[in-house]
Amino acid sequence: MPDAADGAQLSGFRLNLRIVSVVIFNFASYLTIGLPLAVLPGYVHDVMGFSAFWAGLVISLQYFATLLSRPHAGRYADQLGPKKIVVFGLCGCFLSGLSYLLAAMGGSWPMVSLVLLCLGRVILGIGQSFAGTGSTLWGVGVVGSLHIGRVISWNGIVTYGAMAMGAPLGVLCYQYGGLHGLALVIMAVAALAVICALPRAEVKAAKGKVMSFRAVLGRVWPYGMALALASAGFGVIATFITLFYDAKGWDGAAFALTLFSCAFVGTRLLFPNGINRLGGLNVAMLCFTVEIIGLLLVGIADTPLVAKIGTFFAGAGFSLVFPALGVVAVKAVPQQNQGSALATYTVFMDLSLGITGPLAGLMMAWMGVSTIYLAAAGLVAIALLLGWRLKKRPPVEQPKAASSAD
What we know:
By secondary structure, the protein is mainly α. The protein has helices spanning 4-7, 12-37, 40-47, 52-80, 82-105, 110-143, 148-197, 213-248, 253-270, 274-278, 280-300, 304-319, 321-330, 338-367, 369-392, 400-403.
């Protein structure tokens, strides 16, 4: 495999191909998330006979495990190299499928099965955290830091693609093979990914002084906060657009979500070099502006067409926020700490999406569903102001250890 220095010489198709050859392992990890996503709630509630609370908890455990393990994933990726972290994460995805299989085999003991399902979700959350963080850093190591924005963008594309494919495919597997069959498919996906990853060449972990989590957080938190504010717009679209359409008496909520997704993926594909050309903060501020327009259009919409246009703009605006801010956040620390920076930065989005749902639900109950989109536009406007302040701030001087990194 050509080394990272050669990545600067690549462009277009060859560059994308090299990135995809690494981030495909993140696709595999997210496919193992998507496959059981539409099956497990109904299985826990309808087949096993547990309440809706337990059905929701089984799903939520994965997100909590991902959130808590991300900083550790980043630190170990910095210390051991990203390939080892990816393989470790994919092994976790495999073990989650094994837990589902054991739960299906122990169906006559519902409580044991429930514990096994919960265990599998926790292992999956940790596995995805390691596989996702590792694959991003591996991709950067393969093509060079010049293309970090494109690597992060491709990771997002494969993430959403895997989730979109996984849910219907998981339902199909469950229909024909039950939970046993679904578990075996999950194990096969993870095992195949591990087999493909092992022969790949490693990229060396950068040498140098490792910063503490508090020090990394101190460098990254402004960009993470802007990401968290902007993620509120994504959260209210993804979670409540169906209820918004129902409250208005309209049809076509699913198509609105499709428009959001198409705008999200399409923007990343159409503007792969935008971050390198304009700079991360400039792209982020432009994206904030487009997202605000989209959310305002949804909030004031009195026809389905206006709402659909709004969701399209919101998707296009949010599309490049994560990679644009991520490029700046990762470069705010020395190279040997970039895994920790990326993982810490991503935690802000995880927290935002976890908090947005319940808070927006309370606001919707008190003030109506339209207000949550106007409120989200206000939060993104704060992110825009924060981005402007960050752009005016003098750059952070890197410690000497960064210059000696291999």
